Each structure stands twice: as C-alpha cells, then as structure tokens.
C-alpha cells in the first residue's frame, strides 16, 4: 500500500472524527486506517467480502453505521470505486469496537452490566490468586468495563487484535501474566482469548497494583499513541518510581492541541513530538536507562522551581469566583440527586409467581407514589429489555431491571421482595431462581450527577457479598439503611 493512498485515507477518516460522540484512541485510529487501506487494495483487485444479512441489519440501526456510510461515500469519490455494503458493516464494527470513553452512564448501558459482572469475576479471581484486595479500586472496575466491552466484541467477531508490547509486558509481569491467562479462561470459557488481549488486561491490573503504592510533587503529562492501557501503566510507573511526582495526566497525541502544555512541569512521551521542544522520550515499559534520564530531568525541574521560589515568593493563589461557583453548583447538583434518590427508595412485597405481574404491580405502586407515570408502558419496556439478555446476577438470588423513559419524572430504586422464587435467565445465560428483584428507574433526560449515582448503585449489586446478603435478608429497614449509607458514602467522597 503506497504512502499517497494512506495519506488520502487518513484525511478522509479525519473528516468524520467530529461526527463520533467519543474520541478514537490513536491505536483504534491507526487500526481503522490500515483496515481501510487493505480493503481498498482488495477491492481494486476485485476481491469482495461477505457479511450475514441478519447481522448487517443489526448494524444498520447504529449511529456508527451512519458514520461509516458517510466515510464510505467519501472513499468512493476519492478512489473512484464502488464499495459494497458489507465493507460498511466491517467499518461499523471497527468504530463500535473503538469506543473508548467514560460516559457517566456507561455501567448502566444494557450491554455493560454483563461485562461489569465478568470484570468483577476477573478482579475476584486475581485478588484471590495474588492475595491482594483489588475490589477497593473502583477505577479498575471502570477501566476493565471500558476496555473489555469493545475487546470482547472484537474477539467474538474474529477481528485481529494487535499488541506490540505483549512480549515486554509478559517479561515485566510474568506472574501476573500467568494469573490473567488462567483468569480469562475461567471467566470466559467459551471464548478463545488471544495472548495479545490478555496482555492488555494485564496492563490494567498492573496499573492498579502500582497505584496502590503511589507517591506524590510535580505535574506530569504522559503522551502515548496506543490508547488508555499503555498511558495508564506508564503513568502508574512514574508515580511509583518518582516520589516527586504528584499528578500524572495521560492524553492521546491528537488531543495535545487542546491542552495548556505550560501547566505541566514535565512532558513524557512514548512517541516523537513535533513542535514541542522540551519533553522526555521514553519506552512505555520504562527501562532503567529511561529512569536515569527522567531522574536527571526531574532534578533539573526541581532546581528551576526552587530558584523561582527564591527569586519571588508567590502566595498560594486564590480560586477564581467562577471556579468557586462551579464547585458549589456541582455539590448542589449532587445533593439534589442524592435527595431525590433517597426519597425514591422503596421496598415492595409481591405474592405473585409471575414476573410480568410482579413488575406491573410494582409499577402501579410507584405511580401511586408519584415516582412514575404510565405503569403499563414501563412494564412493557422492562420485559422487552429482558429479551436482549439475562438480567439475573449469577451466584445470587438478585435480578436487576432498569430503564430510562420520558414518563419517569424522578429516579427511583425499588427492592421487590418475592414470596415465591421465579426462574430467571442470568447474565451468564444460565437459568437461576430469584426471590429479589431490583428495579432502577430514571428519567430519559437525567443529569450527569444523577447517572453517576445510579451507575454507582448498579455496581454495588454485581457480585458484592455484603449487598447480596443484605438484599437477601428481606428486612426492609436493613435494606433501606444499607442503600442510604452507600449513597451517603458516595456523596461524602464527592465533597472531599
């Protein structure tokens, strides 16, 4: 594939990046460009690929398909080529598999809850194997869900996964690598996990372990081309290795233009940077030679900062009025949402042995409480959601139903205690007996803070022994006190 063709493809991909509602990691961008270059080469040689119509019809309704169509149309004009719809489908898969973003409601997405359950299983397996409690890191769960969702999609669709750092990761973390190889086989028995993907997962766990021993001083920017995992593990290594470092931000190469680089004491990059004079180029795995160079650079920065302090003592700057107003407004929004959810905390008992009846009765009860309108419509939405995948939480007697609808005026969290167990499909696709339904409802338009709290509550339910035991106790006061205290702890963290 010649360079001119690559350049044209890059320009075309750049033209549709703004249409995406999430940033493309550099690795995903490069992967997409390479895929397109090979596809065009193939089509010019009259070699065509096929895609099942059933699967293609599922892709057509996605936002990514619409963007892929726009991209294909531009490429057809660029290369004077007719590109079949199957190619649009494969580009859609690339875009869907490239979603690397932190939405406040990410865990609450239908397909994310089952991934969160699997991520919890991985954390549990590794915690036991290395005898460290990794459940204390909510960031690890979040990062694993963000990473695994597109990765599992790629594995299921037999898409190639490339990880040029695999050998180095295995060399640096041999024991953790072995543990994760066993863990992914245990948690995903029906999937063939490539070693390259296992290495990515190892990076997330290694980053978590390194941060558990973190240190604190300078503000550092890490620039990487290969996405979240590489940047995170390098950032964690920097904080562990250098006590002088207080804060590390990591950004992709394409986001540098939006940053105030002057606000960083040190820029560390794994790739050469044009138009930036002062930065330290390092290997992502931070070998000894790079550690020595960074030590030298940090000493220089510290000396310069010390000299500035001697020349002109500067008092700690007051925050601006706008910053203070934004901070206070944020706290007020959290307080409002916490108050709403606490007011919308219900425990309902049902004597029915039919799940549809249970949900209908509960929705009518919530209408009487002013928590929702149109009970029949919400019941149908909840039952329809179940057709797309199991909702039971494996290893428990709990089932989580959730939906966001315009006819729900305020968020609510309802625990439904069943007199008779009902057979439900679990998130692991196995059938299970449930005697407690959890019903999480939210307005279609809800604030970022509200989504964050609802997402927090959903993660509590996924394989958490304390919450499982509390909800299974069927004691109303105990359940309400537990949920209230968890929300209170969440709010206190936001205040600190």
* Beta-strand content bin: 5-15%
Overall shape: it is globular
Ends: how far apart?
Answer: 54 Å
Q: Going across the biggest sheet, name each strand in turn.
A: 2-1-3-4
Low-confidence stretches: 100-108, 306-317
Describe, in short, the structure shown.
With 496 residues, the chain is α/β, with parallel strands linked by helices. It is built from 18 helices and 8 strands. The chain has 4 domains: 95 residues, PTS-regulatory domain, PRD; 101 residues, PTS-regulatory domain, PRD, CATH 1.10.1790; 99 residues, Rossmann fold (3-Layer(aba) Sandwich); 170 residues, Mannitol-specific EII, Chain A, CATH 3.40.930.10.
Question: Which key features would you list for this structure?
Answer:
PTS-regulatory domain, PRD; Rossmann fold; 4 domains; four-stranded parallel sheet; 18 helices; 8 strands
Describe the structure.
- By secondary structure, this protein is α/β, with parallel strands linked by helices.
- Helices cover 56% and strands 12% of the residues.
- The longest helix has 24 residues, at 288-311.
Task: Please give the structural blueprint.
Elements: H1 3-16, H2 26-44, H3 53-60, H4 63-79, H5 85-97, H6 110-130, H7 138-156, H8 166-172, H9 174-187, H10 195-211, E1 218-224, H11 228-241, E2 245-252, E3 266-269, E4 280-281, H12 288-311, H13 321-343, E5 345-350, H14 355-368, H15 375-386, E6 398-405, E7 412-425, E8 431-443, H16 448-461, H17 465-472, H18 476-495
Parallel strand pairs: 1-2, 1-3, 3-4, 5-7, 6-8
Antiparallel strand pairs: 7-8
